[in-house]
Amino acid sequence: MTEEQTKSLQLLDRRKNIVANGVGVFNTATVKKAKGAIITDVDGKEHIDFAGGIGVVNAGHCPEPVVKAIQEQAEKYLHTSFNVVTYEPYIQLCEELAEILPHGEKTKAMLISTGAEAVENAIKIARQATKRPAVICFTEAYHGRTLMGMSLTSKVNYKFSSGPFAPEVYRIPFPNFYKYHGTQSMEEFVETELKRLRESAHSMVDINSVAAIIVEPIQGEGGFNPIPQKYLEGLRSFCDEHGVLLIFDEIQSGFCRTGHWASWQHYGVQPDISTYAKSMGSGLPIAAVLGRAEIMDAAESGTIGGTYIGSPVCCAAALATIQLMKDENLNERAIYIGKIIKERMENFRKECPEIGDVRGLGAMIGIEFIKDNDPGNPHTELCANIVKGCAQDGLILISAGTFKNVLRILCPLVITDEQLNKALDILENQIRKNT
Question: Record's family (predicted)?
Answer without folding.
Answer: Belongs to the class-III pyridoxal-phosphate-dependent aminotransferase family.
